[in-house]
Design goal:
Blueprint (H helix, E strand, L loop, with lengths): L1 H22 L6 H14 L2 H27 L18 H23 L2 H7 L12 H26 L28 H8 L1 H9 L3 H18 L18 H11 L10 H5 L4 H12 L1
Main location: membrane
Organism: Clupea harengus (Atlantic herring)
Keywords: Membrane, Monooxygenase, Oxidoreductase, Transmembrane, Transmembrane helix
Amino acid sequence: MEVNETATILSSALLAVDYVDSVLPENPLQLPLEQAWNHILQSYTKFQIATWGSLIVHEFIYFFFCLPGFIFQFLPFLQKYKIQQDKPETWEKQWKCFKMLLFNHFCIQLPLICGTYYFTEFFNIPYDWDSMPRWPLLLAQCFGCAVIEDTWHYFLHRALHHRSIYKFIHKVHHEFTSPFGMQAEYAHPLETLILGSGFFIGIMVFCNHVVLLWAWVTFRLLETIDVHSGYDIPLNPLHLIPFYAGARFHDFHHMNFVGNYGSTFTWWDKLFNTDAQFHKHQQKQKQQ
């Protein structure tokens, strides 16, 4: 019964997205994008597109999204938006973080990325232009992936905080009590594998084209770098997402250690009351 209900909800959501897509005007960039994509298909093999394309997207997007937060520390007028103003970034911490990132990216994540082609082949994920979903469907699929990943992250992240295993794995990520954007993927290799596995579950459920892999990578990196940025910048477009946690929510997790275990959304913390200390902290700050 539950499976049928879930299938009905997904079908209804897809129909709604298809309807929105049908009434939207044609994208003026569609033709040049189609020509560029077909050129890629003719010039490279599926293995090269899946492997090197995924690597380039991951590395470029990660460090591109980290760049604003890195620049913020040199702009005095933005320091009023820094959440923990008494804990500025240091070159020593950033260099240590960068070295760990290089190890994780090329010794842990690169071997996983090399399996992307076989992943797409196993699940019969297409590469052709005609099968590529338009952006409204991509956005809806990314949101669905985020809901699934957030659920995985909440329960596994909370488990990694258990005192019997915390010091062996998750303690590495908590070396920085005041996070900064580049620290988003600073973690023990086992944590990278454990929490990172949630990324692929949504892909197995929703993926109907290789481009969703890259769209979901982009959204997930943007989100995790934002919540680790250490800055609560006003007019952040990500706050338009319903129940979005944001930098202040996750920054408290690093500062307080307990609570706020969700990665993207706040609903699991609200349901299990693991955001109680955060709300008390917020009330105290308002009274000051």
